[in-house]
Amino acid sequence: MNFAAQLFYSSYLSERLERLYSPRLALKDSEENDPFWQREELHLGPSQPGASYKCCPISNGTVGRRPTLIEPERLKDFGEEELLNGDVKVYDTKVVGGPEIMLMDPPKTRRVSEFRIVPRPPAQYLRFEDISAAAFRIQSGIQKTPCTYSRLSKQYGMEIYLKKEHLHYTGSVKERGVLYLLTSLTQGVIVATDCNFSMAVAHHAVELKIPMFVIMPSCVSSPRLRIYRDYGAMVISYGSTGHDSQNHARHLAKENGYLYVEEDESAAYLAGLGTVGMEIYEQVPKLDAVVVPAAGQYGLLAGTAAAIKHLNSQTLVIGVEPEGFPLLLQSLKTDSPVKDMHSNPNKKLYGDLMERSLGVNTFQLSKKLVDKVITVSEEDSLVAMLRFQEFERSTVDTEGAMGLAAILAGQLPELRGKRHSFLNNLELVRQCVDRALVLDDRVSKFSVQLGEWPGDMAKLLDVLSREDVECVVETRDKSQSAQLRKTLSDRYPSIFWLDR
To answer: Which PANTHER family match (predicted)?
Structure first.
């Protein structure tokens, strides 16, 4: 744009500013004499019709310059006027930059050892969300067992509730963990140990239409093998020992793409076992304590404790172990799972005891969540079994009776007057072992009245000895039993009393 055009544009801009900002009072006199629409400075074209800007040449002076619309006395409102009295003021322009931005110095290089590493808390192995998910998943395949008030409560001065896990199809609480474990599998499974865990796997695998194989040594009895077949599993007898059958099972699983399963401490299995704790909390209001047997696999104790402590941290969780195999108690003393107990528990009473049954995760859960661990003797467990038969009309194994055995031995005085639940893995042996043997024609009970003639007892004993049978004598009470033992020992010094 040339200078002349700049001058014209400046004049036009001044007119616009005057119209916007000049007060009406300043223009009042001029408007009365010369209306604003007739004023020459408002016409953007030439001053005369037919004329052009060329007749009045534009120069750097007053000639041909259009008067400004800004009043001189108002110049102070707009600053200095560039075009004043026909002269042009020239200003030197100085470009001033913005404030200088100072960059920070680059960070110094530091060694990794100089940084403070804050360790993250370890992930929780078994969460209550896992147990809740397991409860939802297995609800269609596992019945909700009752937790009933026991007749033993009044006798021992406390409210005792029995969680009757023997009512599961296989008679074991382990069905809970097994079913939740199997729901995540797609391939077939193989087991090679004769225990409640294997029976639960056989039953639920067949129900879920998962191919199921059972590899057992030849020493397993035929009735036990028949149970697995009745569940629908394919049973194969291999080897003479459990070690042989287990190695063969692992080989078959690897060759055929099956999964060899045995009782362990997987999160899914423990979550399934923990569902029993949820049910106890729902069924027994204002619960003070839960007593859990801890013989054999300790996942039941850990899973139950995880559920109970999440629902109410004030509820006590007590684990009970056999006196001859205190694996958890010794592990807590050494602060790590014990691998070698140097103990030989009674296999007839505690057949499922295994040193590898207490894993690292199960131990950590028990250490964190279990309030107390106690041991009971075999004698107390056997007496507790008898009490269950007399008061609850059910036959239990020694593991299921250990909770009551602890009360019989006076090891739980803090529970007197309190409300607690026994988590009993009860095994009802077809109403009663003795009754079953009678029906199977393997036990015969009789009573005979001997005459006063000499030789009658000798003749009876002679008949029994020729038939090669064992005689069992039932006495009225302990005093009669002691008297009978003394009499027979005095009369027959060579008599041999069988172990209890």
So the answer is: ACT DOMAIN-CONTAINING PROTEIN, THREONINE DEHYDRATASE, MITOCHONDRIAL-RELATED
Residues 261, 192: Cα–Cα separation, whole Å: 8
pLDDT digits (tens, 9 = 90+) for 453-463: 667 777 777 77
What confidence score (pLDDT) does residue 369 get? 93
Distance CA 137, CA 495 (A): 60
pLDDT tens, 296-345? 668 999 999 999 999 999 999 999 998 888 889 989 999 888 877 766 66
Amino acid at 63: V
Q: Residue 105 corresponds to which tokens in the numbers above?
A: 């110095």
Q: Which residues of 200-218 are buried (b: 16+ CB within 10 A; e: fewer)?
A: bbbbbbbeeebebbbbbbe
pLDDT band at 472 (very low <50, low <70, confident <90, very high): confident
Strand pairing report for 212-216 and 234-237: parallel
Last residue of a domain, one of 194, 226, 260: 260
Task: Sort 194 into a burial class: Cβ within 10 Å, 0-12 / 13-18 / 19+.
Answer: buried
Under a CB-based contact definition with an 8 Å cutoff, are residues 289 and 315 in contact?
Answer: yes
Domain final position from 225, 260, 295 = 260
pTM for the model:
0.63
| Sign, CA torsion 121/123/129/132 | negative
Question: Are residues 410 and 369 both part of a single domain?
Answer: yes
| Token output for 413 | 């005085």
Distance separating alpha carbons of residues 58 and 5, to the nearest angstrom = 10
DSSP code for 389 = I
Regarding whether 251 and 380 lie in a shared domain, the answer is: no
Tell me if 337 sits within 8 A of 363, measured CB to CB: yes
Distance CA 397, CA 381 (A): 9
CB atoms within 10 A of CB 103: 5
Q: Is 384 exposed, middle or buried (0-12, 13-18, 19+ CB in 10 A)?
A: buried
Per the structure, the complete domain to which residue 285 belongs is given by 128-169+267-439
